[in-house]
Specification:
Layout (H helix, E strand, L loop, with lengths): L2 H4 L3 H8 L4 H8 L3 H10 L9 H6 L13 H8 L18 H12 L8 E2 L7 E4 L4 H16 L5 E2 L9 E4 L2 E13 L1 H5 L10 E12 L9 E4 L6 H102 L6 H16 L10 H4 L35
Parallel strand pairs: 2-5
Antiparallel strand pairs: 1-2, 3-4, 4-5, 5-6, 6-7
Helix pairs in contact: 3-4, 7-8, 8-10, 10-11
Length: 404
């Protein structure tokens, strides 16, 4: 992104995008209009709608979307004290666009069975008022939404059928309901008990305001009734203060949760490092033990191989002497001559006797069978070679050494 565009504050970028079309402003900074839109989104700067500049060219004066405060600025302002009462707009003061839309849709709607107009399906606040209270409800909504959005807490329209709008900051939502109380009409009070009850309850002209976090569960709802004990302006000021208080508390809760998560992350990182350190020590100790065991095995195998070779040599000599004795006996018994069968046996016996000789097995080899210096063997090997020397059948098994 062009450095000059990066250096603009939110206010400067807002003035730029509302002073000329986006393509023109983007060309001024040498970037694409997509890059400029991303910059505006990152700084939460509203841009003119598609038809804004066409209306300007036609001589109209469309309203500019105000630049709302950042979250940090909003919560600083939200903790400031409000006036004890808020005034309804007079007949000449334009309503907030959402309040004007609410007024228009309520005026065009038909009363329900209870003679009130319902706005659940209008994606705005949930409103249930009689026809005579439509304008009052719209003005009250104007006062609430104006004083709340001015500190950066916007009102979002609901998406889809029968989804009312809500105030939103981050993941926190707060729904607003405006309802006119129903009372028993004078005509119904005079009617006999056996007569038809049609029209028994009618709108009373008194509004009740509700705030709730979950539109499907009213356990956390708060209500303000225009019962004459306090002025309507005082009730509106209390409602605005409660909305601000709710989102300030939510923000503080999020900040505290973020601090706790950071603490947990630091603690987990500390534990992870300690574990890795202990694991490294354990693995090193294990390597040392394996290294010592490998050296001990070689050092134990070589003397054992010497004993095996000596035993094989004894067996070889005994077998050779026995074969010679057999031949001498046969020759003595037969005047120096032996039979073909006896000669075949002697040949077979000598081959087996020779196989018993450690020399035939390549023993000894000083490089494989002699002494070595364990200090010269690096950790992890390579280790001195060990031969697979067979154990003589007459030799008992030597127990392995105990490795400390």
């Amino acid at each position: 992104m062009n450095p000059s565009c990066d250096r603009l504050t939110r206010e400067q970028l807002y003035e730029k995008v509302w002073s000329a079309p986006t393509t023109q402003v983007a060309a001024e900074f040498g970037i694409s209009d997509v890059a400029l839109a991303k910059r505006c989104k990152k700084l939460n700067v509203p841009k003119p709608s598609l038809g804004y500049w066409a209306k300007i060219a036609a001589g109209q004066k469309p309203e500019k979307t105000p630049l709302l405060p950042t979250a940090a600025e909003a919560f600083v302002q939200a903790e400031k004290a409000l006036p004890k009462t808020l005034s309804l707009p007079d007949a000449t003061e334009p309503l907030h666009p959402l309040a004007a839309e609410l007024l228009q849709k309520l005026a065009a709607a038909k009363p329900s069975y209870d003679k009130r107009i319902w706005s659940e399906e209008l994606t705005l606040p949930e409103v249930k008022v009689g026809k005579g209270s439509i304008e009052l409800a719209a003005k009250c909504f104007h006062v609430i939404v104006t004083n709340v959005e001015s500190i950066g807490i916007p009102f979002r329209k609901g998406q889809g059928y029968r989804n009312p709008g809500f105030f939103r900051m981050g993941n926190d939502r707060l729904y607003l309901g405006i309802e006119e109380e129903l009372v028993e009409s004078v005509e119904t009070a005079r009617r006999r008990s056996w007569q038809a009850p049609e029209g028994r309850r009618v709108p009373a002209g008194r509004l009740t305001f509700s705030l709730y976090r979950d539109r499907y569960a009213n356990r956390d709802s708060k209500q303000w009734k225009d019962d004459g004990k306090a002025s309507l302006g005082t009730l509106l000021a209390e409602i605005v203060a409660e909305i601000r208080r709710h989102f300030v508390a939510a923000q503080k809760r999020r900040e505290q949760e973020a601090i706790e998560r950071e603490k947990q992350a630091i603690e987990w990182e500390k534990r992870r490092r300690e574990y890795e350190k202990e694991e490294a020590i354990r693995r090193e100790k294990e390597r040392q033990q394996k290294h010592a065991g490998a050296l001990e095995a070689v050092m134990h195998a070589r003397p054992e191989d010497l004993i095996k070779a000596a035993e094989w040599w004894r067996l070889h000599q005994n077998a050779t002497e026995f074969i010679a004795a057999c031949e001498q006996r046969w020759r003595g018994d037969q005047s120096g001559e032996i039979t073909a069968e006896q000669q075949a046996w002697l040949t077979w016996a000598r081959e087996n006797a020779n196989a018993m000789s450690p020399f035939e097995m390549g023993y000894p080899d000083p490089a494989k069978d002699g002494a070595f210096d364990p200090a010269l063997v690096p950790l992890g090997g390579p280790y001195p070679a060990k031969r697979d020397f067979p154990r003589p059948p007459t030799m008992p098994k030597i127990p392995p050494p105990v490795i400390q």
